[in-house]
Amino acid sequence: MMKTNQSRAYRFGAFEANGATGELRRQGLRVRLHDQPFALLMLLVERAGELVTREEIAARLWPEGTFVDFERGVNSAINRLRVALGDTAASPRYVETLARKGYRFVAPVERLGVDEAAELPGDGGFGAKILARPEDLPAAPRGLVQVLYLLLQAMYLSFYIGALGNLAEIEGLLRGLRFAGALFDVVVVTAAILIAVRAFTLCAALFHAPGFKGRFLRLWPWLLAADVLWALAPFLLLNHMSVGLAMASMAVLVYSPFAQRSLVLMGAGGGKARG
User: Fold this and answer.
1) Contacts (Cβ under 8 Å, ≥6 apart) of 98
2) Which of 12, 48, 236, 254 has its CA 20 to 30 A from that of 141?
3) Model confidence over 47-79: pLDDT tens digits?
């Protein structure tokens, strides 16, 4: 019987591989993959970024004493795995061939607990037809992706803290508007709550908290609503900028939650470097 690690699960790109169930899923949907290619996948992701020789693959897929054409068997398993992942040898996104040596898994890999992998929604239910998928995104150095993500979190923190530090000015701007009192309360309450939320997203990414990507993707629909609301923040600075500049800033801020989601999928907060 093939040796596989039954206690581990991994996420890479749009895929999750669960060693406990022997399943490969893409955005929550099961991808058909036979036992040997799946065992090969688990071996590669367990050692992502490292050379895995053909001899090591043969030892994982076939018990000692098995009589089989190992060369043809390894080639067949690699080809089936690439078909399942939508990968190619000429332009690998997941499995890279090292000539006359073996193979290397080149995509960022996030290790999950089995329970976490079992309950993942696959990020496919919320606007799956319009949101970027991991395979749609460009490769970028993880350090750059990380810095951009952290800067966005710091930007939002500065918005909230700045608003709470200038409540008198904001109250004056809102005075005369319909429901001015309710609008003022929304600013105060959401700023106070979102300071804690942004502190979490910033620290979790900064210290590479295990499972950060999954938690962020589950939190993202709520962050989207909050970020779209706070895209109006430039209008709280009308004493210091023109209406036209406030509108231009708002347009950029509306895009910001989608940029944050893409940065997390590209490796911000955890995983190995892409590219």
Assistant:
1) 51, 104
2) 254
3) 999 999 989 988 888 876 566 677 888 899 999
